[in-house]
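User: Design a sequence. Structure:
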């Protein structure tokens, strides 16, 4: 994906009717910085605190909630591990190994065939966002 632009994100936040607070700006900047990683709230807190030690972790949590409500941030839970966050524009899915926990990032259209089948067979318009598919990774499937 193209590198997200912090100014554009802040603009959207304003369009959503949300105030651009210092904490929101810092958390969004930390998410942009994190690139395609899936930082936890704590990771993001550390990034924010590196430059702004006065920002509390509880503020980071609250800010993530409000950014999620505004539709800018997606919270992605992997079973058995802390919730992670990424920008909503970073559209993708995952396959995750049930045995060793390795994750593979899948393209946004990875489930196109399933989606069209759901529509055809059930009239269901699926809009999966950040699906995680379980199974076994290459290493674990071989052993
Ligand atoms: Zn993801
Ligand atoms: Zn594995």
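Assistant: Done.
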């Amino acid at each position: 994906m193209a590198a997200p632009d912090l100014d554009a994100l802040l603009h959207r936040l304003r369009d959503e009717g949300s105030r651009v607070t210092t904490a929101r700006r810092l958390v969004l900047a930390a998410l942009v910085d994190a690139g395609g990683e899936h930082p936890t709230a704590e990771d993001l807190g550390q990034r924010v605190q590196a430059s702004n030690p006065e920002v509390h972790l509880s503020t980071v949590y609250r800010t993530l909630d409000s950014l999620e409500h505004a539709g800018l941030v997606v919270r992605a839970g992997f079973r058995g591990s802390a919730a992670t966050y990424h920008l909503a524009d970073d559209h993708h899915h995952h396959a995750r190994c049930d045995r060793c926990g390795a994750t593979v990032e899948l393209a946004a259209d990875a489930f196109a065939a399933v989606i069209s089948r759901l529509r055809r067979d059930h009239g269901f318009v699926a809009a999966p966002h950040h699906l995680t598919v379980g199974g076994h990774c290459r290493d674990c499937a071989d052993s």
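The first strand starts at residue 73 and ends at 76. The pocket of zinc ion (ligand 1) is lined by residues 38, 76, 86, 92, 94, 130 (CB under 6 Å).
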